[in-house]
Write a structure and sequence with these properties.
172 residues, alpha/beta, Rossmann fold, six-stranded mixed sheet, binds guanosine-5'-triphosphate, binds magnesium ion
Length: 172
């Protein structure tokens, strides 16, 4: 199971996503500080909303296997810059919540996430559970655990640690 780090503005639906993935009924609980469990790191939205705290978010990413930007389908503005993935040494994915909102503009949120460098984008409804199984399937794929030498070899090829080796290439 991949450990997922959630970041996104307050009310985006991060905590609800953790509840929905655990099969719990949604219960509102404002996140006051970063909660770390075995599979998930849930941060308060205010951290992503401040440029000073956002550095701390980059640090938390080192404790995770994958970093998820969480944005609701009716989000009025974009908090994340282009090519965000370049300063996060983990795969970056996007999770669009509140797909049931009558103000949803999913194509726009997808564009923001693609600009940020998300390699996968999932659309979910935390209330009904729609779309969660696809995300769950992705999280259940075990990440490859590399030795330092293997990681350095991948770096020498100019590829990310989580990218597959090019065809015909194997570890020395
Ligand atoms: N309709 C709908 N409401 C949702 C969905 N996901 C979350 N919500 C609601 O959105 C509100 C905010 O959700 P939270 O999960 O607490 O948001 P958060 O991102 O954890 O916010 P902070 O803890 O402040 O950072 C709650 O009232 C949820 O019930 C969804 O997919 N659909
Ligand atoms: Mg929360």
């Amino acid at each position: 199971m991949k450990k997922m780090f959630l970041m996104g503005r307050s009310e985006a639906g991060k905590t609800s996503l953790t509840q929905a993935l655990k099969g719990e009924k949604l219960h509102y609980k404002k996140t006051q500080y970063t909660n770390i469990t075995d599979d998930m790191i849930d941060s308060p939205g205010e951290y992503a909303e401040s440029k000073y705290f956002s550095l701390g978010l980059a640090c938390f990413s080192f404790e995770a296997d994958v970093v998820a930007i969480v944005q609701s389908a009716d989000e009025p503005y974009n908090l994340f810059g282009q090519c965000l993935h370049t300063f996060i040494q983990r795969p970056l994915i996007g999770v669009i919540t509140k797909t049931d909102s009558s103000y949803a503009n999913i194509p726009m949120i997808r564009l923001w996430m693609e600009d940020a460098g998300c390699e996968r984008i999932f659309e979910v409804n935390n209330v009904t559970g729609e779309g969660l199984s696809e995300l769950m399937e992705y999280l259940e794929e075990e990440p490859e655990r590399l030795t330092l030498e293997q990681a350095k070899f991948k770096q020498s090829l100019g590829i990310n640690e989580w990218d597959p080796l090019p065809p015909g290439v194997s570890y020395p």
